[in-house]
C-alpha cells in the first residue's frame, strides 16, 4: 500500500506575535489512501487542516490508538521514564485465524504451537520453487482453498507488526501461480505462529539509541531451481525496533556467495538512504549526523565495497549495485563486518532453525536489545 507524507509549515506574521523571533509551526500528515494520521506543534493548525478536509470530503476523527488494523500502545517505563511504543494486530490476526480454523486443524495446528514461523530447511523442506513441478490438479485445489487470499493476509501482517514471517511469505509468493500442498501448509504454520504470538508485535523505545539508525543484510547462496536467483534480506532498526525489512529473491542471478552478498548490501543501503532522506526532511539531523552502519558477514563483499576491485566474480553486476560505494564515500553509510551469529538479517535470508531463530527474533521485534557478542574486524585487502 502506498503512503504519502505531507509537511505543512506556517510562520506567523509579526502582527500575530509578541516575540521578535519568527515562529514556524509544523504539521505532518501521513495519508494511506483515505486514512490519515496527523501530528504537529500547533493544535489550531491541525484543526484548520481537519476542517478544510471535512468541508471537501466529510472526514471523521477517530482514536489515534488504532489505524489500518494496527493497534498503537504508548506507555511509559516506570523504571526510567522512557517512552515505549508497541504495535500489534491482535484483532486482525484473530479474524485470519477464524477464517482458516478448519484448515489449521487439518494441518495439525489446532492445539499445537509451532516453534518457528516456517519449517527449517531440510531434505523434506527445501525452499519453495516453481521448479517443484506441482501437478495441475494439486495447484488448482490449493488455489481454490484461497491461497492468494491467505498470502495477502500474511503480507499485511508482515509489513507492520510481525516481520519474522517475512521469509515465509516471500517463499509462498514464489509459487503463487502454482501453489503446492507444502506451500499451503507453510501458510498454515505462519497463521498458527501469529495466533500464538499475536501479543508480541513490534516494540520501540525512546531510550534504545545505542546503535542509532542501524542496518544489517545477508544473502543465501542457495539458488531457486526455477531461475537461479537467491534470497536476500536487509533489516533497518531504530529505537530498538525494526522500521524496515526486506526479504526477497534477488532480481539477478549472482555467481557465488560474495556476489549475492554484494547485491544485498546495495538493497540495504537503498533502505538506509530512503530513511536518511526522510529524517533529514523531518529535521532529525542528530539521527543522521554520522554515517549509518550497515553490517555484513561476508569479507569479500565488504572488500569490493571498500576498494572497488573488479574481478570475475563481480564484473558482470549492473551499475546500480555499486551505488553503495558512492554513498559510503559521501559519508551517508559505512559498511562494517559482523559475525554470522550476530547478523539479525539471517532471519530473512533463510529458514532458521529453532536455536538460531530464538537468538534473532526477540531482537528483530524490539523485545531484546541488540548486543554484538562476537566481535569481527572489518577487513580489506590489497
How would you characterize the overall build of this protein?
With 382 residues, the chain is α+β, with helices and mostly antiparallel strands. The protein has three domains: 4-61, no CATH class; 88-196, no CATH class; 205-364, Nucleotidyltransferase, domain 5, CATH 3.30.420. 36% of the residues lie in helices and 20% in strands. It is built from eleven helices and twelve strands. A five-stranded mixed sheet has the order 10-9-8-11-12. A four-stranded antiparallel sheet has the order 4-5-6-7, with no helix packed on it. The longest helix has 25 residues, at 136-160. It is globular and about 70 Å long. It starts with a strand and ends in an 18-residue tail after the last helix.
Give a nutshell description of this structure.
The protein is an alpha+beta fold.
> What's the name of the CATH homologous superfamily of the largest domain?
Ribonuclease H-like superfamily/Ribonuclease H
Q: What structural class is derived from the secondary structure elements?
A: alpha+beta
Query: Low-confidence segments, ≥5 residues, pLDDT <50?
Result: none
Overall number of strands: 12
CATH C-level class of the largest domain: Alpha Beta
- End-to-end Cα distance: 46 Å
Largest sheet composition: 5 strands, mixed
Fold blueprint:
Blueprint: E1 4-11, E2 24-32, E3 35-40, H1 43-57, E4 66-67, E5 70-76, E6 83-88, H2 90-99, H3 101-106, H4 136-160, H5 166-174, H6 181-196, E7 202-205, E8 214-219, E9 231-238, E10 241-249, H7 257-281, E11 292-296, H8 299-307, H9 323-329, E12 333-337, H10 346-349, H11 354-364
Parallel strand pairs: 8-11, 11-12
Antiparallel strand pairs: 1-2, 2-3, 4-5, 5-6, 6-7, 8-9, 9-10
Helix pairs in contact: 2-6, 4-5, 4-6, 5-6, 7-8
Amino acid at each position: 500500500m502506498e503512503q504519502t507524507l505531507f509537511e505543512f509549515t506556517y510562520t506567523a506574521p509579526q502582527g500575530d506575535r509578541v516575540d521578535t523571533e519568527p515562529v514556524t509551526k509544523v504539521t505532518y500528515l501521513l495519508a494511506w489512501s483515505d486514512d490519515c494520521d496527523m501530528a504537529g506543534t500547533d493544535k489550531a493548525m491541525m484543526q484548520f487542516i481537519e476542517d478544510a478536509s471535512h468541508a471537501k470530503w466529510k472526514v471523521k476523527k477517530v482514536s489515534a490508538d488504532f489505524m489500518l488494523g494496527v493497534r498503537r500502545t504508548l506507555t511509559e517505563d516506570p523504571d526510567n521514564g522512557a517512552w515505549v511504543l508497541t504495535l500489534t494486530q491482535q484483532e486482525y490476526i484473530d479474524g485470519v485465524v477464524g477464517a482458516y480454523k478448519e484448515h489449521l486443524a487439518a494441518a495439525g495446528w489446532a492445539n499445537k504451537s509451532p516453534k518457528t514461523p516456517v519449517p527449517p530447511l531440510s531434505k523434506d523442506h527445501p525452499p519453495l520453487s516453481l521448479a517443484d513441478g506441482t501437478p495441475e490438479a494439486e495447484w488448482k485445489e490449493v488455489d481454490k482453498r484461497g491461497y492468494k487470499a491467505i498470502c495477502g493476509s500474511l503480507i499485511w501482517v508482515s509489513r507492520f507488526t510481525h516481520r519474522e514471517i517475512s521469509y515465509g511469505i516471500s517463499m509462498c509468493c514464489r509459487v503463487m501461480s502454482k501453489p503446492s500442498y507444502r506451500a499451503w501448509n507453510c501458510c498454515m504454520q505462519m497463521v498458527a505462529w501469529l495466533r500464538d504470538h499475536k501479543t508480541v508485535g513490534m516494540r520501540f523505545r525512546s531510550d534504545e539509541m545505542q546503535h542509532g539508525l542501524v542496518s544489517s543484510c545477508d544473502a543465501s547462496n542457495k539458488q531457486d531451481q526455477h531461475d537461479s536467483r537467491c534470497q536476500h534480506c536487509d533489516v533497518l532498526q531504530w529505537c530498538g525496533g525494526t522500521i524496515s525489512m526486506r526479504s526477497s529473491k534477488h532480481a539477478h542471478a549472482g555467481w557465488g556467495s560474495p556476489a549475492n552478498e554484494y547485491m544485498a548490501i546495495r538493497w540495504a543501503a537503498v533502505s538506509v538512504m530512503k530513511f536518511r532522506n526522510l529524517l533529514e526532511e523531518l529535521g532529525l539531523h542528530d539521527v543522521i549526523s554520522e554515517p549509518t552502519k550497515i553490517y555484513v558477514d561476508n569479507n569479500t563483499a565488504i572488500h569490493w565495497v571498500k576498494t572497488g576491485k573488479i574481478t570475475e566474480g563481480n564484473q558482470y553486476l549492473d551499475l546500480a549495485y555499486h551505488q553503495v560505494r558512492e554513498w559510503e564515500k559521501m559519508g551517508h553509510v559505512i559498511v562494517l563486518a559482523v559475525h554470522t551469529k550476530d547478523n539479525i538479517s539471517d532471519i530473512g535470508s533463510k529458514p532458521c532453525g529453532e536455536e538460531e531463530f530464538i537468538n534473532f527474533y526477540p531482537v528483530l521485534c524490539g523485545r531484546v536489545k541488540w548486543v554484538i557478542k562476537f566481535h569481527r574486524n572489518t577487513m580489506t585487502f590489497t
